[in-house]
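Wait, can you check?
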Amino acid sequence: MSIGKGPHSAIERARDLGCETIQIFVKSNRRWDAKPMDPKKINKFKEVRAQNNINPIFAHNTYLVNLASNDEETLKKSINCFLYEIKTSEELGLDYIIMHPGSHKGIGEEKGIERIAKNIRDLLLQTENAKIKILLETTAGQGTNLGYTFNHIQKIIELIDYPERIGICLDTCHIFAAGYDFRSEKDYEKVINELDSLIGLDKLFVIHLNDSAGDLGSRIDRHEHIGMGKIGLNGFKNFLNDKRFKNIPGILETPKDKEGKMDITNLKTLRSLVDY
């Protein structure tokens, strides 16, 4: 949800569309820098949030951020930008901020993973009085992006070694494009068992529910409306009827239209798949 008219407007729009949970950017996604958020906007957000039952509310970090970068200037900008977002999300009273782990840009996966873990740990230590959790999002593996296997995510979490402030966000489009097939019940159980054994289901705090325009294993990060992509409805039905995830929030990141009609359609489609 956009915060273009102030962060509180995201809640109001979500309420009108029938959402139960939302995700926002706390600053422009196209810029590195931002002024500190006006305390009046923060107070208004908290006031409107208290009046509406939309919880939890997730922040997502700026896509420009790359904590695996080997370029000093890019890394410095990434750290400062993410630090701003963590602090602003904490001021807004949010519980979670989601991030794409990073792109190794040629230095190799192992070195990239080590850099991501070190930089996240440093950020956590700089904000040690904060409560907000950083959620590592599974990726499609496009280009040199890291986090497209559960092993990548597990290794980053292990190296960070700060369990109370770290969790994961699973994106259905991304894991499908990365090669995890969950369309049949048998394949779904295999994927979830692997996730549980490597990372632990207790580390999962949100699922991005997006269909995929790309094929299985294509490594293409392109979201599609629910049931209109290569995943199809059965794949989502498996997630939505898994009672282990009954209380795990789901977020749509499907293509937007001005009126929000497709948001309503996608929500309706997902809700129709729930059997219990």
The domain at 7-272 is CATH 3.20.20.150 (TIM Barrel).
